[in-house]
Amino acid sequence: GSMNEGLVSARLGLVGIPNAAEDAMIARDLMLAELTGGRLHLQHVSTRMGVAMIRDAKARGVSVTAEGTPHHFTLTDEACEEYRTEAKVNPPLRRPEDRAAVIEGIGDGTLDVIATDHAPHHYDEKEQAFEDAPFGLVGLETALGLVVTQLVEKKVLTLAQMVERMSCAPARAFSLPGGTLRRGSIADVTVFDPEREWTVDRNRFLSKSRNTPFHGMTLRGASILTIVDGHVRWRRDDA
């Protein structure tokens, strides 16, 4: 399949990917993690049942962490109308009820991490027929604005919880030394203005790729300064 199975895929005449394809794998992996006592991380969760199963597994004490992405809590499969390959991602954008479940899961901590699922592709690759175009979108340059606009502004997360989901929790999940401002830790820091409004313009992306479904969208929350290993690597021109 190449997009979510549903009314939109039927209307477009495209082979769909059912929720069950993802749900079955989540159920299997949760069962194995519970059986073995192993540690499990689930990427890019996109279905209502998937979020519910992870929530239940955590309540039973299963050692599992999981992710949600900005595109899965912002868009639905209607973004694929007119065969828009910029919205072709894997797992696919799903129904409104699935989007709502991802938002709820991030809000209550079932989904510990917000991940960009950054997948740049050349313009020519995305200009193919929908079935042939690769999955993926540019996620890095819109992630912060989408989280602030869709989750912080709508009171799903506080700013502190946003930082937790995007920085602290990912570091803990993978036992990485970053994700903290404690003295002696790695100085990888993003300074941002949560009030700043901006319009997504793919032609101004610093990434070499432009494959975004968010072109023209007005967002709130913008990066001002990026520090990597203690060195300023990027500063917003109009800061």
Structural class: alpha/beta
What is the average of the pLDDT values? 97
Estimate percent helicity: 25-40%
Spans of at least 5 consecutive residues whose pLDDT stays below 50 are none
Percentage of β-strand residues: 15-25%
Number of strands: 8
Largest sheet: 3 strands, parallel
Radius of gyration: 18 Å
Q: What does this molecule look like?
A:
The protein is of the alpha/beta class. It has one domain: Metal-dependent hydrolases (TIM Barrel), CATH 3.20.20.140. The chain is built from eight helices and eight strands; from the N terminus they run βαβαβαβααβαααβββ. The strands form three sheets. The chain has a three-stranded parallel beta sheet with strand order 3-4-5. Strands 6-7-8 form a three-stranded antiparallel beta sheet, with helices on one face. A two-stranded parallel sheet has the order 1-2. The termini are far apart.
Question: SSE layout and pairings?
Answer:
Blueprint: E1 3-4, H1 7-12, E2 16-17, H2 19-36, E3 40-42, H3 48-59, E4 64-68, H4 70-74, H5 96-108, E5 113-114, H6 123-126, H7 140-152, H8 159-173, E6 189-199, E7 218-228, E8 231-235
Parallel strand pairs: 1-2, 3-4, 4-5
Antiparallel strand pairs: 6-7, 7-8
Helix pairs in contact: 2-3, 3-5
